[in-house]
Design brief:
Helix content is 43%, strand content 21%. The chain has 384 residues and is α+β, with helices and mostly antiparallel strands. Helix 11 runs antiparallel to helix 12 and helix 13 packs across helix 14. It holds the Pfam family MULE.
């Protein structure tokens, strides 16, 4: 071990951690400078353990060479499965980088299991999560810097895509001449032009961002005559609320399309409901028609009543094209559970049934168009 040379101090520290883990021993740092690193056994005083390692920088280089090593350890580690002092987030970040690169959706629980398998030690959820964040930063960049680069990114986006529309909102920072990002909307000229030839139906949805900085990616999707998905507009916002949904829909109305009698399909988020009924935003009837995603509505129904038979009857009623068939299914629901029938009747029938829709949904009953696009981003929503 004495005389062994490492390319850098970081490489030496990494090797020392791996060695201590393999020996089931822990050390403390006695001295750490740009030219010197001294480590000794954590139990040096308690157990009179002589283990010590000393390394110095190789003159004229950034390499470190071990010039003293007292070993092996004379102490005994009483527990081999508890957390290890050298099992820190930096070591784990280096260990899992390849795993994250291969599987974007790698969970913290999977990281913990990998640590047990590799090193034989348990790692807390907090430390494993911290390690994942460091690995993401090493692979994809810093979260803070990525947001700082947004203005430059969107300038480049506009320059590379003539007709691209970018609208951003900021508010003054505490420091002079600084601004804090709030939200940004963007769409492309081909999307604006192409939507003129699509069905007059929009699916809107939001997907949560799970990185260091939370937020919501809002998406508006259309559908062409061949039933192909048509990405229309996007927004990165602080979250789902009345203001952000109102702003997103206002941007679509003023900068993307002024088509009348558009059908907008979404879940029943209060922000969307408020925006769709706001006459000043241009989405209230008869300028547009709001419809409720059947999948979300079914999920809400099951949460409330937990009955698959009722759920199936509800779906049949929603998909029925004739009012007589719809009434038949609703009456059956009422005979089984009157409260369930009342719950459904509280939602205007034209919002969720084909028989009362007036043909505005074009048989598109869900926000699956947006959900499919969201699935493409699965895992990536946690990255810078």
């Amino acid at each position: 071990m004495v005389g062994q040379v490492f390319n850098s101090k970081a490489d030496l520290q990494h090797a020392a951690k791996l060695y201590s883990l393999s020996q089931h021993q822990e050390y403390v740092v006695v001295s750490s400078t740009t030219k010197l690193l001294v480590l000794r056994c954590k139990k040096a005083e308690q157990s009179q353990c002589p283990w010590k390692l000393r390394a110095m920088v190789v003159k004229g280089t950034t390499s470190f060479a071990i010039n003293k090593h007292n070993g092996p350890h004379k102490c005994v580690n009483p527990c081999l499965n508890r957390d290890h002092q050298q099992l820190d987030s930096n070591l784990i970040a280096a260990h899992i980088q390849g795993m994250i690169k291969a599987q974007f959706t790698l969970s913290v629980a999977a990281i913990q299991a990998s640590i047990v398998e590799k090193f034989g030690y348990q790692m807390s959820y907090k430390n494993a999560s911290k390690a994942k964040l460091k690995a993401l930063t090493n692979l994809f960049g810093d979260f803070y810097k990525s947001y700082a680069e947004l203005p430059h990114f969107f300038i480049a986006l506009e320059q590379a895509n003539p007709g691209c529309v970018v609208i951003s909102k900021t508010f003054p920072g505490i420091m002079e001449n600084t601004e804090i990002f709030q939200q940004v909307f963007w769409t492309f000229q081909p999307s604006i032009e192409g939507f003129k030839h699509c069905r007059p139906v929009l699916s809107i949805d939001g997907t949560h961002l799970y990185g260091k900085y939370k937020g919501t990616l809002m998406i508006a999707m259309g559908c062409d005559g061949n039933n192909q998905l048509f990405p229309l507009a996007f927004a990165l916002t602080e979250g789902e609320n009345i203001d952000s949904w109102g702003w997103f829909l206002a941007c679509i109305r003023t900068r993307v399309t002024n088509r009348r009698k558009l059908c907008v399909i979404s879940d029943r988020h209060p922000g969307i409901m408020a925006a769709m009924s706001d006459v000043y935003l241009g989405w209230s009837e008869p300028y547009a028609y709001h419809r409720v995603c059947m999948r979300h509505l079914t999920s809400n129904f099951m949460t409330r009543f937990k009955d698959k038979i009722l759920k199936n009857l509800m779906c049949r009623g929603a998909l029925a094209t004739k009012i007589e068939k719809f009434n038949k299914h609703m009456n059956t629901i009422g005979r089984i559970n009157a409260v369930a029938q009342q719950w459904l009747e509280a939602i205007p029938f034209e919002k969720w049934t084909l028989s009362h829709d007036g043909g505005r949904m074009y048989d598109i009953m869900t926000t699956n168009m947006s959900e499919v696009f969201n699935s493409v981003l699965k895992g990536l929503v946690a990255y810078p």
